[in-house]
Amino acid sequence: MKDAPATTPLLEIRNLSKQFDLDKSFLETIKFKGGKITREKRSVHAVNNVSIASQRGEALCVVGESGCGKSTVARLVAGLLTPTTGEIHYEGERIDNRSRHEMMPLRKKMQMIFQNPYASLNPRMTIKQALEEPVKFHNPSMSGSEVTDRVFEVMKSVGVDPSWAARYPHEFSGGQRQRIAIARALTVDPEYVIADEPISALDVSIQAQVLNLMLEAKEERGLTYLFITHDLSVVQHFGTRVVVLYLGTVCEVAETATLFENPKHPYTKALLSAVPQLSDDKPDHIRLKGEIPTPINMPKGCPFASRCSYSDARCGQEQPQPVHQPDGSIVACHAVEEGRLDQ
Amino acid sequence: MSLLSVRDLSVQFAMRDQTVTALRNISFELGKGERLGIVGESGAGKSITGFALMNLLSRPGFISGGSITFDGRDITGLGDAEMRDIRGNHMAMIFQDPMVTLNPVLTIGQQMLETLYAHRRLSKEEATQIAILKLREVYIPSPEDRLDQYPHELSGGMRQRIIIAMALLLDPKLIIADEPTTALDVTIQADIMELLLELCHSNKVGLILITHDLGVVSQMTERTLVMYAGRIIEAGRTREIINDPQHPYTQGLINALPQQTPPGQRLKQIPGNMPSLTAIPPGCPFAPRCNFATDLCRTVLPEVVQYGPVEVACHEVNRLHNDTVEEATA
Do B273 and A288 touch (CB under 8 A)? Predict the structure, then answer.
């Protein structure tokens, strides 16, 4: 258990929130309601008050269903979006309020891998050009041959034959393209890699290849990952710690083994029980009632209350705060706090 | 008598400069009310199989050989009008993405009634009653109100339920579901799978479930076909295939799943990629990726043979099995 870690976490986000305005201009805010003209500004509450710290060398996984804000968290951390409120710290320094220019040295340390390698590689660049571009940009003093050496070295490490360097992305299969996308992130020698569903678009046998590659890169280069996924079996294999998000809010944070052995939050339990298993003696899945509420009108109390079979009056009124559990996990649930789940 | 019997079905695509064989001599049977899974990776030909069964292949694709017998009747060469009678009435198909399947500019009610009118002579009241009944069967809350809603007003899980209700409208004997839960979240997927299972039981509907997810197949089906590069390479009872796969590809596929390896260790990956349909190697299509391949594998296409409880297309299955037995005893 990590009580008050002595070292500063590599990356820490504190009380991070992101809202996307639906009504941007003045005219859009004007609504006609019940015979009256009123002004109303609606926004999507994509991420609400999320605090996560990732320690050096760990693979922190963020899981949740579509629309829970996991990709928004990744984009906020990568600096592709600006948070509405909250702070992001990298090696103890605040980075969310930096200008583009000030962010530049950090971009070399933090790299991102996206879900769809078809979209993240420029179709008009050969992969050599695509891979050399970030190296040249971040190391202007490097000579051309040094850049090429670096690129070939990384290509070899991800299992892409350097003799294919002159080819275009469309000449590669999906799995190879994702390796190239990973290679592109690795060419600048990052220490922090944000991977947003890097294997979801790939076939099972190819998923294993790419996941192995990411594990190797982690061990050889001492990478720290922020791994965004919806696939819990991948989390169980790859993650050291897991953050479960629901409607942009953290439900549970735990070490991977703890989470899978002893999930505490009712939503985590339901999520784990829904994963299809190979064995035929799988316990029944916990049926959730209703649907995910829209993040436009955030519920007042616990975001999960409307679908939770343990919810009571307090859950509907008061938002549960994250509470440390004896086994080191952090759970935000009134029912867990009050011990109502065990009855 | 079986509900569906497929014999040596082949599908080709006539391209400008060559003819590509997408399905090669597929044979299988499906009993009444039986649930069959078709698994494989993208490009294996599982969706093409579904399309061929429904006679939905459009040019340049065509059935180049073999026969499909449905309910004792050969439906391979049927004309459009006769096929239209079979589709919906006798077999129905559910696709992956409910947003693409539903017409965005028609209400749910209009789309459901349209299907009913196309096949039955019904008054509007009767048709509406059937539609409401079917929506209720798939646990859509307040079905009367849903009829007037448009697809975009509903959530993904709700839309997929409506698609299932539409497939059930005319009480078909067979439902072909092509990746019905792939676009959905796990919790919704679990609900939809439970619903499909329940409907298959209560209405005695046969199900062909096309998916890439071995977990889904394991929980939904009684028998499984494993496809690779347009061929069936292993077929048998789902439990046998999951617990004791015979073909090296099936073994590889199951072993590659993250849950088969202790956390943090290297996954057992299958090297290489599936060959493209335009460049299928001679011999066994899996040979270039197979650890057990011999010269025979690289030159002669293996026939499907009965091996214990399952059917396998592999030259080396005997040796493979002995090796595993030795390993286990050693």
Answer: no
CATH of the domain at A18: 3.40.50.300
For B268, nearest residue in chain A (alpha carbons) = A208
Distance from the Cα of B272 to chain A's closest Cα (Å) equals 8
Question: Contact, A191 vs A199, CB < 8 A?
Answer: no
Could you report the predicted ipTM of this complex, rounded to two decimals?
Answer: 0.80
- For tokens 């009965």, the residue is B306
Dihedral sign from CA coordinates of B77, B82, B83, B89: negative
Report d(CA B254, CA B217) in Å as an integer: 12
| pTM score, whole prediction | 0.85
Q: Is residue A3 part of a domain?
A: no
Whether residue A291 contacts residue A275, with contact meaning beta carbons closer than 8 Å, is answered with no
Q: How many domains does chain A have?
A: 1
CA angle A319, A324, A325 (to 5 degrees): 115
Least CB-CB distance to B263: which of A208, A256, A287? A256
Measured between CB atoms, does B198 come within 8 Å of chain A?
no
Nearest to B185 by CA among A295, A146, A320, A231: A231
Residue B205 banded pLDDT, cuts 50, 70, 90: very high
State which residue of chain A sits closest to B43, comparing Cα positions: A203
Domain range holding A279?
Answer: 11-109+190-338
Residue A263: inside a domain = yes
- The answer to whether A280 contacts B191, with C-beta atoms less than 8 Å apart, is no
Is A211 among the domain residues? Answer: yes
What pLDDT is attached to residue A6? 57
Q: Nearest-CA distance from A173 to chain B in Å?
A: 8
Strand blocks (E) in chain A? 11-21, 30-33, 36-39, 43-54, 59-63, 85-90, 93-94, 110-113, 192-196, 224-229, 241-246, 249-255, 323-324, 330-331
Residue A195 in any domain: the answer is yes
Binding-face residues of A in 181-210 toward B, CB within 8 A: 203-209
Nearest CA in chain A to B157: A291
pLDDT digits (tens, 9 = 90+) for A181-226: 999 999 999 999 999 999 888 888 888 888 999 999 999 989 999 9
Q: Which of A124, A176, A138 is nearest to A155 (CA)?
A: A176
**Test mutation, A65, A161, A199, A204, chain B, max B CBs within 10 A:** A204
**Predicted pLDDT at A39:** 80
CB within 8 Å: A276 and B190? yes
The whole-chain average pLDDT of chain A stands at 88
Is A233's CB within 8 Å of B257's CB? Answer: yes
Report the distance separating Cα A210 and Cα A227, nearest Å. Answer: 13
Interchain contact B253–A (C-beta under 8 A): yes
Could B273 and A282 be called an inter-chain contact, meaning their C-beta atoms sit closer than 8 Å? no
What six digits make up the tokens of A178?
């994702």
Confidence band for A11, pLDDT divided at 50, 70 and 90: very high
Question: Which pair of structure tokens corresponds to residue A281?
Answer: 């003696």
